[in-house]
Structures are given as structure tokens and as C-alpha cells.
Amino acid sequence: MTDTPARLLQLLSLLQTPREWPGGELAGRLGVSRRTVRRDIDRLRELGYPVQAARGADGGYRLVAGKAMPPLVLDDEEAVAIAVGLRAGAGHAVDGVEEASVRALAKLEQVLPSRLRRRVANLQAATMPLSGAWRGDGATVDPRTLTTLASAVTGEERLRFGYVSGDGTATKRLAEPYRLVSTGRRWYLVAYDVERGDWRTFRVDRITEPFATGARFAPRELPEANAAEFVRASMNRLRPVLPVLEIDVTFEAPADFVTARLPASLGAPEPLGADRCRLRTSCTDSLEWVGLRLALVDCAFTVEGPPAMSAYLHDLGERLIRATPVAPDE
User: What is this structure's pTM?
Assistant: First the structure.
């Protein structure tokens, strides 16, 4: 490496890793002699970087922790990773974190070179948080994929990319990217699929080899209020639709007795006196599960509704009777 400024930046980037670097390893990484490494270390010290040398045959080097440091040196992927983390922190629920993340992101953009600043700004402009979303499997996303998508979003350029669906089917897509949406564990691209003539939500970790075609487009009107709501609606469509049970049961026991023996998700019964109470609630749990939970309350009760619950408990009672024949007389 003959470019001295570039070599100094790479050396500084290595030294900012919290470890001690043998001189020989640094020389190998930089493609220079150990003597050149020593000269570069001296240059960094002249610039104010507190580089400490360790005695020994190989002469290790490290940056001294806990002292005032000149600005950090980040490579492209590190800058994107920090921007992603700060963008997520800006939507965090902890008091003070949101404002601090916004300030830190602004400072990061100020000190970055214009090329990296554009990439970070594109990512920020193209992304919006979605709170309360499903927590996924934490699939990783290549930062370069994110920045390619973000640049296409802000530049309003059509994208071509490969996509692997949940069942493993691989397809090629041509899309007009609208927004990136972060859920905390997954990234989604909201885009208009040109060849299918409809809006789609794409998991970014399933996108391969994205590239902007250079063809500009006029943004279409999204069917939802914003991209986050579009992703939320897409998620809701994937959820299984379960029937709603309207439960109405009278128990021959005090309300606090019944409450202590029912799952909190079913709610609390209403007292009907000292020794009676009534539970009226709605749930999407299975008929069988609710019926068994009612039977475990360990008191007499009457099912007022729904009729299917009465039928299930009647059949359950008969099965239990058949399973426990009367013991023979001794």
C-alpha cells in the first residue's frame, strides 16, 4: 500500500479495535515493512492519537483507552451499521434515548465524508419504524443491500432484484421502491411490483443482488396511510383467522375464588352475591381449551353460552364417566 494517507486511515481503523496488535501483523495487514509501521505510528502520535507501544520481540501497539480521542475512523459498513442502530434508537421507548440517538445521528452525518453521508441520509430518509410488530427470527441483512434499496427509494429509481419466498421459491422482481420499514428484528421493503401490477411487502433478508436500473418513476399512491401501516396490514393478513368465542358462564362460588383459578386472559367474573358470580367475555382460544379451564375451577357452574360449549362439555363429561367405571363392591 503506497498511498500514505489511506494507509494511515487503515492503520488507525485497525488500532481502534480493542486489542494489542503485533508489529508484524500490522505490517502484513498493510502490506508494508515493520519500519514503515513504526514511522506511521509516529505520524499518528503527532496527530494526537495516543498509541502505546509494548516492549517485546514484535513490539505490539494499541490505543490507550480512557483519553480524549480524535474522531473515529469508520469504514462504509460500520457507518451504515451505526446509522441503523441510531435510527432504531430514535424510536426506542426508553426516556431520553430517542433524543440522544437523533443528536448522535446528526453528529455522525456531519463528520462523515459526503459519499458516506449521502448513504446514511438515504437510509434515514427511506426508513420508518413500525412499533408493536411481530418479532421475527432476527435474520441478518447485508448493509450494502440496505443502502442500495435506500438509494433507490430516495432517488425514485426502479429496482431489479432476486427474491426468495417463504416456501423457497426464487423469482426475479422489477419494482418501484416506496419505503424501507424496520420492525426491530426485520427489515421490509414496501414497493410496487411492476410485473404483477400490485403493491408488495418484501423481507429484505430474502432480497438478493438488488440494483437500480436508472429508470426513474413517479411515486404511486400507497393503499395505506403510510408504509408502516401497509406492513402491519400485510402481517395481519398472514395471521390465522380464529373464531371468536362469546363465553357466558355462571359459577356457584365467590368471584375471587373463580378469578384465582381462571387464566387472566379470560378476565374476571362479576359477583352475583356472596357465593355466585358470572363470567361474560370474548376470546379466540379454542373451544376445548376454554372448556377444560372452566372444568378446572373446581366448583359447580352453568354454561349460558355458546351452545357449542355446552355440547362440548356434555360430551367431555360422558367420556370421563365412561373412562371411570364404578368400582366393584368389596
Answer: 0.45
